[in-house]
Design brief:
This protein is an alpha/beta fold. The protein has 12 helices and 11 strands. It has a 5-stranded mixed β-sheet with strand order 3-2-1-4-5, with helices on both faces. Bound molecules: 6-O-phosphono-beta-D-fructofuranose. 6-O-phosphono-beta-D-fructofuranose binds next to loops.
Length: about 350
């Protein structure tokens, strides 16, 4: 049996660990492995495939990025896109596929499975917001980057003293902001799930100053919305931030919620304020041990599903263990930060 492996969507630390795990299990089972280059883009046109012998996955466990490359190409946007992908895979002798990705990549995988092609998934996104899984590859490393940044920013913020606004990734949810902010001791965490009025931010900052705390650290997820910031963000949108990718997503980093918040804070309070946008720093670097272990467990479990001829499924983390759910299940809704975690963060405000 020959299986294919691809990585789609934004890269995340731990993708190579997942590729290695899937490939190593495949070799152990006597399968051959094809690497599909640049996500779904590699399954269109004439295809972009390469044989993945054991030597190709040697030494990649600690590497960030993906040796296969990735893209946000969406075959569902093409006429007969799924049929073309399936025909190309079959034509190249690839009898099953491991698709490693987030909701976008997995929505294509689910459509292929429904078209009768054996495909399994592996959950990946630093946003950590797929439903039915407690964990997505890349999240733990991204949180580590946020925590390190907050530790550093605490030092410089206290020296001046200043308000530090830290914008982190999180398109629809505030997992990275919430978990990173809690672990890094943020004074206020603003996420898409729970609206905060700008007046509350100002009040919070005055309360801290009044209580003798000369500096404040505010973490804001890039997808958070605040009415007062809309005019500044609309200017950014007019400058091109509304451009959408093949899955219909705008580039939130260009909308500049952190920059807008920092400007408004300075205007409203007179407190010197600086903004740090962590951006793609959260996606680079070597994966944490947690990301490596889960990429390994889930990558191996995915190939085992193909071996057992159980397709259209995805291994996930449930109650700390590997469980298996249908592909449609993980993309059915976005998993949001619960109220309990949000309230916990407010204890430290
Ligand atoms: O979906 C993961 C994510 O990291 C989001 O948090 C972020 O909005 C987006 O990808 C950025 O994507 P790109 O790499 O295309 O700028």
């Amino acid at each position: 049996m020959r299986i294919g492996i691809l990585t789609g969507g934004g890269d995340a630390p731990g993708l190579n660990a997942a590729i290695r795990a899937a490939a190593r299990r495949a070799y152990q089972l006597g399968f051959q492995v094809t690497g599909i280059k640049n996500g779904w883009a590699g399954c269109l046109g004439r295809g972009d495939f390469e044989d993945l012998p054991p030597a190709a996955v040697r030494g990649i466990l600690p590497l960030g990025g993906t040796i296969l490359g990735t893209s946000r190409t969406n075959p569902l946007k093409e006429k007969d896109g799924i049929a073309k992908v399936v025909a190309l895979l079959r034509g190249n002798g690839i009898e099953g596929l491991v698709a490693i990705g987030g909701d976008d990549t997995l929505s294509v995988a689910a459509a292929m499975s429904e078209a009768g092609y054996p495909v399994v998934g592996v959950p990946k996104t630093i946003d950590n917001d797929l439903s039915s899984t407690e964990f997505c590859i890349g999240f733990d490393t991204a949180v580590g980057v946020v925590v390190e940044a907050l530790d550093r920013l605490h030092i410089t913020a206290s020296a001046h003293p200043r308000v530090m606004v830290v914008e982190v990734m999180g398109r629809d949810t505030g997992w990275v902001a919430m978990v990173g902010g809690l672990a890094g001791g943020a004074d206020m965490i603003i996420i898409p799930e729970f609206g905060v009025a700008f007046d509350e931010v100002v009040e919070h900052l005055h309360r801290r100053r009044g209580g003798g705390k000369d500096f404040s650290i505010i973490v804001i997820a890039e997808g958070a919305k605040m009415k007062d910031l809309e005019p500044a963000m609309a200017t950014a949108a007019a400058a091109g931030a509304e451009k959408r990718d093949a899955f219909g997503h705008v580039q939130l980093a260009k909308q500049g919620v952190g920059e807008a918040l920092s400007t408004r804070i300075e205007e409203a309070t007179g407190f010197e304020t600086r903004v740090t946008v962590l951006g793609h720093l959260q996606r680079g670097g070597s994966p944490s041990p947690v990301d490596r272990i889960w990429a390994t467990r889930l990558g191996v479990a995915a190939v085992d599903l193909l071996k057992d001829r159980r397709a259209g499924l995805i291994p996930v983390r449930k109650d700390g263990e590997v469980a298996v759910v249908p592909l449609r299940e993980v993309i059915k809704e976005t998993r949001h930060v619960p109220r309990e975690l949000y309230d916990l963060a407010r204890v430290f405000g």
